[in-house]
Structures are given as structure tokens and as C-alpha cells.
Task: inverse folding
């Protein structure tokens, strides 16, 4: 039984995906960490780098965006044979000072700016439209017979320069040619509007993507059946019309929806460095900017008979849990897993397990193989920040050697806690908190605190305290 819990009532948006009541995926978006992926900009080329076959583009963000030659519109639309195109200098395709419409495919990380593409993608209900894609792709979930039909329809509908990706819903029983054609007309109109905005010739955000809703709708599209529980009625009404095959339930209890379904503890567990396996062994997760290291330890497990067999069973458990944690924690980039020593034949089995488990996720990943030192190497495409990057910040006490919940996260936690007292017979709540938690909670000019007081029906008063990390405590709830 598949189930999705969606929490959008407060500023921090979250959804969790469960299979048979076990957490498989969690996605959290905070306002200050909103992903740029999918955003479309009009940018100006600031530097062309022939040595790197790339260019930097100013898009109005803190860091310049990186555009590879192969992702430039002029490169894709060039009818020259591909091998000849690759030999051409990047200067043949782009010039300094040139205006380009680009879309973000990867957020800025560390010292690196965002990664962009000139091949714009606009998503519709059944189709993803690329004005300069030049190819047709079809969801792998559809059967081969449908592939042939959709490919024929696509060639009939698109121009030679356009590209189309047919979603799974394009092969649905109730999807007609007219539905697909209407989808394409609407997407072409969207692109035409973007072109009109781009005529202003100034660095600007042309279209902002709601990354949270995009990720959620991707998940709901993949579900054949299941239940979706939401805490905002307006969202329920919209989504149940889009996904008639799913059951939608409106959650309206006082208790926060994640707390009610025991997901707060799951979030905390996903931030822990150590994850225990059911046989007493455990995994250690160390995230760095360049790679994530997962170490498999025997821990309390100590097999006495048939040691090789029980060691292999531990590695199997570790592989299943590692794949699950990679998805839940949203780990990406290079991932290295140090399993307990085993035979080459057993390594092959572990690779098959990892490939199968990672394939369940919608993120592009590749199991590269075991190194000569017996470490499994995996790469996973990064599009958004990991769970720890979203929810945690560097601790001022240990100067970055450890992590604690950020002021933003605590402010949102406090907000959810106060929502549970809505319509209660109280007049005032007094809270002791650090200055940053108060600031993040209250918003600019105290506007959010005042709005919350009106909605909840009681006054919220803060006592600012000094504390070595972001902190709050509710000291009093009652009458004035």
C-alpha cells in the first residue's frame, strides 16, 4: 500500500512517501533554500572559455552560471555532423555579451555556481516540450506498442527543431490525440510568452519553477493507486482532479500531520550519522563536498558458524539500507560504500541489488563497480540539496565539525507546535528563544508573527536568551 503525506500548511513544505507504512522518500523545501532547478532566465554571457568548451552566464544570482557547449541552443540546432561539431571551438556557438535564454539544471553548491542549459523544457500534463530538442522520447513505463503509436503522433505534431517527451499519462486509456495536441498548443504558447519577455534584453527571471510541487507531482504520476493525505483543502481539490486513480484525504486535526504519522522521528533519524541494521551491524554516513562515504561495520554482529555466509547476509542488508538512505537523505554526486570484505561473485550480487533498489527512485544514478580496494562506487545526479544541507547548519561552537538544527528549522518547528493550540481556550503563549529563532519566526517587521496571532487567536510573546546554539522553549500557555 502506497501512501503520501503532504504538509504545506506552514512555510516549510514537506512530503513523505511510504510503502507498507515504511518511509521510502522524504522531500523538504524551506523558503530560503528554494531550489532554482527548472527556473528559466534571460542571461548575458560574461565569459567564453575555449579551454573548457563552456561559457559563464550572468543570470542575476550571486554566482555566474555554467553553460557547456553541448547544452547551447546553437550547438544543438547546428545541422553539421556531430563529430565535426565537437571539433569546433565554443566561440563558434556563443559570444561574450550575447543574450541567451537558459534553464537551471543543477543548483549552486559550495564555490560552484548553478549549471544551466539552453535546451528549455516546459512541462505539460502529458508532454514535456523542448522548442529546440530535436528528438522524441517516451516514458519507459509504457509498453512497446504504445511507444510506436506515440512516436508516430509526435512526428506528426512537432517541427524538425522541436523535441517532445511523452509522460506515462500520454499512454492512458482516456488520453486522446486531441488531449496531446491541446497540451502542445498550450506549451508552445507558454514559450511564446517567454520570448516576448526576453525582448526586454535585461538579466531577469522569466519563469520560476515550483520545485516542491514538481517533485510531488512526479511521484503521484508514478503511482497507480494509493492514498494521499494533505493538510490544505485547496490542494486536495486540485490534485484529486489531476489524479482520479488516487484516494485523497483532507487532514484537519490540531496535531501537525507529520507528528500524527510519526514522521518527525523519521526525519531526525535521517540526519543521524549512524544507522543500525536489524542484525546488529550498522552504517556510518559521512557527507563531504566531494563525496559521501558509507562505511559498513559489523557492530554487535559476530557470526561464529559459517562466517562467510553470515558476512554476505550482512552486506546484503547493508546494500538494501544504503540504497534506502541514499533516497531518503537525497544524497548525490559520488557515493562510496565500504562493505565488509567478500568474494568477487558476492560483489556482483551486491551490485545487482544496488542497481535494482536505486532504479526504484526517479533520480538518475549509476553503479560504477567495485574498486581494487573493494569499495563500491556509485554516482547519482544532483539537482537539489541533500536533507542535511536543507535542515542543518554549521555549529558555531564546533566551527563546522558538527551539525545542529538551524534557526529556520526550529522556527518552523515552533510554528507547527503553536498551530496545535489553534481554537484552544488560551490567550497567551510565552516563549524563550535565541535571537535568530525569534527573527526567523517573526518575519520582516514582525509581520508573520502578527498574522499567526490573528489566525491562532492568541498572543505570542518572546523572551530573548543567550544560548550556544539555536534554541527555544515554550514557557507559558494560558490566560493573560
Result:
Amino acid at each position: 500500500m502506497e501512501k503520501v503525506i503532504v504538509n504545506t500548511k506552514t512555510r516549510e513544505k514537506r512530503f513523505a512517501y511510504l510503502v507498507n507504512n515504511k518511509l521510502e522518500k522524504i522531500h523538504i523545501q524551506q523558503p530560503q533554500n528554494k531550489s532554482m532547478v527548472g527556473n528559466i532566465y534571460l542571461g548575458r554571457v560574461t565569459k567564453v572559455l575555449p579551454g573548457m568548451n563552456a561559457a559563464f552566464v550572468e543570470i542575476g544570482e550571486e554566482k555566474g552560471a555554467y553553460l557547456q557547449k553541448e547544452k547551447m541552443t546553437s550547438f544543438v540546432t547546428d545541422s553539421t555532423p556531430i563529430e565535426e561539431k565537437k571539433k569546433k571551438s565554443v566561440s563558434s556557438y556563443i559570444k561574450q555579451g550575447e543574450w541567451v535564454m537558459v534553464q537551471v539544471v543543477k543548483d549552486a553548491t559550495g564555490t560552484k555556481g548553478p549549471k544551466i542549459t539552453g535546451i528549455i523544457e516546459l512541462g505539460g500534463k502529458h508532454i514535456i516540450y523542448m522548442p529546440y530538442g530535436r528528438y522524441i522520447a517516451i516514458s519507459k513505463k509504457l509498453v512497446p506498442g504504445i511507444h510506436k503509436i506515440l512516436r508516430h503522433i509526435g512526428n506528426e505534431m512537432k517541427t524538425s527543431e522541436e523535441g517532445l517527451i511523452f509522460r506515462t499519462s500520454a499512454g492512458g486509456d482516456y488520453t486522446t490525440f486531441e488531449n496531446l495536441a491541446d497540451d502542445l498548443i498550450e506549451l508552445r504558447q507558454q514559450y511564446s510568452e517567454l520570448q516576448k519577455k526576453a525582448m526586454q534584453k535585461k538579466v531577469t527571471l522569466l519563469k520560476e519553477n515550483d520545485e516542491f510541487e514538481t517533485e510531488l507531482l512526479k511521484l503521484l504520476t508514478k503511482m497507480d493507486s494509493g492514498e494521499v493525505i494533505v493538510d490544505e483543502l485547496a490542494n486536495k481539490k486540485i490534485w484529486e482532479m489531476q489524479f482520479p486513480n488516487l484516494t485523497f484525504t483532507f487532514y484537519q486535526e490540531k496535531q501537525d500531520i507529520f507528528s500524527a504519522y510519526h514522521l518527525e522521528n523519521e526525519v531526525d533519524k535521517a540526519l543521524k550519522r549512524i544507522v543500525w541494521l536489524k542484525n546488529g551491524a550498522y552504517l556510518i554516513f559521512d557527507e563531504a563536498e566531494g563525496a559521501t562515504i558509507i562505511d559498513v561495520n559489523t557492530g554487535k554482529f559476530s557470526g561464529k558458524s559459517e562466517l562467510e555466509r553470515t558476512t554476505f547476509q550482512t552486506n546484503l542488508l547493508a546494500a538494501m539500507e544504503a540504497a534506502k538512505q541514499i533516497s531518503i537523505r537525497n544524497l548525490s554526486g559520488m557515493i562510496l560504500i565500504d562493505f565488509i570484505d567478500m568474494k568477487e561473485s558476492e560483489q556482483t550480487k551486491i551490485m545487482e541489488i544496488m542497481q535494482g533498489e536505486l532504479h526504484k527512485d526517479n533520480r538518475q544514478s549509476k553503479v560504477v563497480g567495485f574498486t581494487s580496494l573493494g569499495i563500491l562506487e556509485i554516482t547519482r545526479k544532483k539537482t537539489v540539496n541533500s536533507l542535511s544541507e536543507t535542515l542543518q547548519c554549521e555549529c558555531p561552537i564546533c566551527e563546522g565539525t558538527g551539525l545542529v538544527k538551524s534557526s529556520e528549522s526550529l522556527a518552523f518547528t515552533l510554528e507547527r507546535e503553536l498551530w496545535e493550540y489553534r481554537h484552544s481556550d488560551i490567550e497567551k503563549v510565552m516563549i524563550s528563544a535565541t535571537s535568530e529563532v525569534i527573527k526567523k519566526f517573526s518575519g520582516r517587521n514582525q509581520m508573520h508573527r502578527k498574522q499567526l496571532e490573528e489566525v491562532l487567536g492568541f498572543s505570542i510573546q518572546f523572551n530573548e536568551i543567550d544560548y550556544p546554539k539555536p534554541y527555544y522553549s515554550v514557557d507559558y500557555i494560558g490566560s493573560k
